[in-house]
Structures
1.
Amino acid sequence: MNLLAYLIDWKNDLRPTLFVRETMCRANMTVGIPTTIFAVIMSFVLCFRNYGFIKAYYPPGQISLRVGVTIYLAVSGIAYFAVCVYSYMKKRIFLRAAELANYLFSIACLCFGVYLTVMDYRIQNQMYGFFLAALWVFAMLYEHPVFSSLLWAAAYILLVWRLGAENVLTDSVRQLVMVIGFMMLGVSFHRYYIMLYTAKQEKLLQEQNEHILQQARVDGLTGLWNRHELRARFDSFTGKFLCVLITDIDNFKYFNDTYGHDAGDSVLLEIANRLRQVFGWESCYRYGGDEFLVIVPSRDPEAFRKDCEAWGAGDKRLRLEDGAVRVNCSGGFSYGYVEELSGIRDLIRFADLMLYQVKESGKGRIQGDQFDLQFYREAQKEMDKHRDRFAARDAEEEQIF
């Protein structure tokens, strides 16, 4: 079973996710720019090294082939360089273009190494060109194991075939190339799986961070945005015409006391869902307790007023375990143009003032108007007087009892 699980994991690793592919491309592009510049320069230097001797010793067909391979390496290097630079400029990864450019550049490097070695082996009896090209591809770039295996097999066959055609191939050379080839593949596989593990850990960490951030922004019970997210969005509200609604559940304590807190949570959740259906998920916040806040950037206050009235008049009959109950909501709304952060707070306080007046006049209604600073200040003073009177009465009762 362990072997089967290992084979299944290994098969899945050969089919990397989009995030892993993007991580590999990002890592390859980091070394892609200096690599392509160096490869293009060195290709022309090495191609025309000992060119006079090669021209006199080799037939024109082989010289043209060497020049053609050099041009292919230069073109693929320039293309890969262009993809890397363009991706950095746009701050995004063009995945298919980057992968294709990487594959073409890797093939060009090994082809150039093969034909450089074939030409130089007879002249100088050395194979540095092929080994350096293989080291460059398999130790500098992250390659998929299937691609690197096929690439190495093709390069090995091509090198052995060309050296055999030049009558310079020996068993020791063949064995040396094979041993070094397996070493290069081992390095390539090892780097791939390190990158795969790193990408998986990075993806897991990113998902955990997103989950923590989501928990910090969203109310755990209703799924609406919370006050932390509201404060974070304050800057985005400035310079806009806003419509604000504050609504709460009438006699919510009755549901908790009569049916239990689980029923109270069910009422909150159902009211939040219905509020989301009317105003949209992005605009709704749980303001605290049984209070909900709606902020809609809109220049059509009449449409918002109709939505508020529809919310107040809508059927809110809920089904609990002990039977169906009807829930009434009260609300106050305001609207106006917001120039600075204090304007947002004023709109919210004005809507809260409208809600307070609804509560004082019997509940179960929605009312509001355009923000009026003078009216707001006078009404606020009246509310403060009520609060002072209630506070004095409570203090007197505490002294009596």
2.
Amino acid sequence: MKKILFLIVAAIVVVAIPNVKAADNCDNISNFEGLKTALNNSCSTITLSESASIDVTEAIEIGYKVTIVGNGSTIKWTGDTSSQLQPQVNATIITSKNGGDVTISNVTIKDSRKYGLQAHNGGKLTIDNVRIENCKYGAVLVNGGDVTVKSLIMKDNGEKDGGNGIEIGQASADYATPKLTLDGTVTVEGESQTSYVTIAENDKYFTSFEVENTPSSDYKLEIKDNKVIIVNQEGKIIAESNKAPETITDIKGTEYVEPVINTTEEVKDNTKNPNTSDSIYSWISIIAVSIIGLTYTIKKKNFNQ
């Protein structure tokens, strides 16, 4: 009986140890191998080591729901830097592909051969307190995917004049309609990149896209003259995209409305003397009293005569 009990306990321990190990592989990730292992284990939450520097040598594609907590870490491309990349080659550092629902927070993404982050063909991507720098094609690609931006800072992304921030496109007719949602702020730093949002001009299957905002978003995405604009809390336009190509026939979003400016000048109080602050009405009162007094004096004099 004791032998049977021992075997049962041993079997439980053997089964439990891999599960504990798998759970441990989800936390305190400090290198690329550890990140790949956590993803292969389908960890629902992956926590990177504080201020870790993770060198990525191949594109990361994620097809399930996961939250990556950066803890101030940096994920950068250190693999092949060849400039001869075919369009179909995925060289984005992290891609949420079809079936993926990726939230990434508190991390810096940099030095990609193409884009820093991508939502591809129905993949969902939420960007929260993320910084993207020096990515050759652009910061974020909404390639038939669904991207929500809570807090994003972009710097020195894109080769063309003005750089390239968030690019909305659709590389295949089979892809879902791209969607970009703003739920906070998006910022551009530096001098080489001025672009916030770009509408892809050479995707021949790209015919529609959608932009929207959450009710609590600080900045707003709106549509003006077939461009995507970003409006700050004061209603001021801080950025606008290029004009959508003629192939795009359906743009869903809130149309920008010019704010009503009150041009009526404040009516000045002309009853005040700017130098003495004496009221005209005061002078009128004094004159009136004087006249009354003078009249009374004359009448009294006549009466006495």
3.
Amino acid sequence: MIANIQLFRFCSALLVVFYHMAGYYENAGGNANVAALINSAGFAGVDFFFVISGFVIWYSTANLQDVREKLMFLLKRVARVYLGYWPFFLMLLALFWFLNQDNLGKYNVWFSAFLVPQPIKTNLHAISWTLFYEMYFYLLVFFLLFLPKHWRLPAMTVITLSFCLGSVVLDRLYGAYSEGGFFTISLYLRFLVTPWLLEFFLGCIVAHIVMHQYVSTSYRWLFMIVGLAVFLIGLMVNNMILDNTMQLYYNHHLRLTLFGFSGALLILGMCLFQENQSNAVHKTKILLGESTYSLYLFHWIALLAFAWTGLQRTVIDGAFSIELSYVVLFAAIVAYSIGHSYYLEMPLYRLARRKIHRLW
């Protein structure tokens, strides 16, 4: 089950990579229809990430009992996020320093280094905004762990519904999620009462269903097919009705509903499949899943480097085949991310886990 979820994490990361590469590909003269198709749903990889995080955290904390275990959970999650993030932050900072130093002053480097919520335009690693919400969710779950076990899911339900209602109220009163109204509301108010929590909550619900075996494995294909159908509906709605604007802030609620539920159904279906593959296949799934964090953080840096070093310009000028250039770039990004995860990210995290265990 966990190996299937890890593979889905990797596929979700690939969606995000394709989404961000599409703009570069089109600007280099690539097929506009292909880029538009990717733009229609590639961003949904982030929605899937949040659902997966909700599932994994709820599943892994279900049996935590004493205060020591609960504190260790929080410390290990914080270590996982920051130790995985800081090498890429330093890599990006160096890239700015050597190739784009004039624009470095536009960013809040300290807030970016410690993942303090801030506007994307001042966030050095622009796509690290998702980590703000990951940390928020971890902290929320940490406090819920101090409730009696049978009260945790009801409490999470109440909090999620309250936040979703709060975001709707902000939208109705101040147009917080309407075009042009998003930035009139305090950043921290929008952050605290975030509808993104819905996707984490959906993951928690799936984990609860799986742990208590409420659904027969005979329904696995039904959930997979319905989940894929909802995903395709979201893609078509975004492409044909919303003119590829669902990923923008003023379409949050529709995005979270379609792609959040799609992700939840797909994860539920995957959990119901029995993992009878060989040990090599199982290890490969785990390896790919573990590289997801590196892939997510590194691809953005690689794309900036591709543009700032002039390689993008050589492709635009016709020195190399557009399609072949982006296939090679994509392969290089994936290969480096897997290597970085295997040789640096995961060893650092394992070291941190040992230190935390010794400390507590």
